[in-house]
Write a structure and sequence with these properties.
Layout (H helix, E strand, L loop, with lengths): L3 E4 L2 E4 L4 E7 L8 E7 L6 E6 L7 E2 L7 E6 L4 E6 L8 E8 L17 E2 L3 E6 L1
Parallel strand pairs: 2-11
Antiparallel strand pairs: 1-3, 3-8, 4-5, 4-9, 5-6, 7-8, 9-10, 9-11
């Protein structure tokens, strides 16, 4: 079991930046693959970015490529989402998620169904 707490959301003007953090409880953070999702009002939850357990390639949605960067610090039990050049369409509640399962799943990393634990979310609002 892991508990996830997001922080760093807020109100920012278009073109600005924010860095979201997701702090995980427990001592086995490095055993979880991590992802960020977002959900705008009236829309389905959508994949933003993901990072494997220990380093390696990261993944991001086409809509955020070149603007958002996911990273993790296993020593601090934290995953980050650096968001640059924000646009009004990035407005949403952002959630971090942890995947504990080890078996290969071709739905990784974009399907919410492959993640086992979720944070409560943090609001990001981008004004035009």
């Amino acid at each position: 079991q892991v508990q996830l707490v997001e922080s760093g959301g807020g109100l920012v003007q278009a073109g600005g930046s924010l860095r979201l953090s997701c702090a995980a409880s427990g001592r086995t953070f490095s055993s979880y693959a991590m992802g960020w999702f977002r959900q705008a009002t009236g829309k389905e939850r959508e994949f933003v970015a993901a990072i494997p357990r220990i380093g390696g390639s990261t993944y991001s949605a086409d809509s955020v490529k070149g603007r958002f960067t996911i990273s993790r610090d296993n020593a601090k039990n934290t995953v980050y989402l650096q968001m640059n050049n924000l646009k009004p369409e990035d407005t949403a509640v952002y959630y971090c998620a942890a995947r504990s399962r080890l078996l290969y799943d071709n739905r990784w990393p974009a399907s919410p169904d492959v993640y086992d634990f979720w944070g409560q979310g943090t609001q990001v609002t981008v004004s035009s």
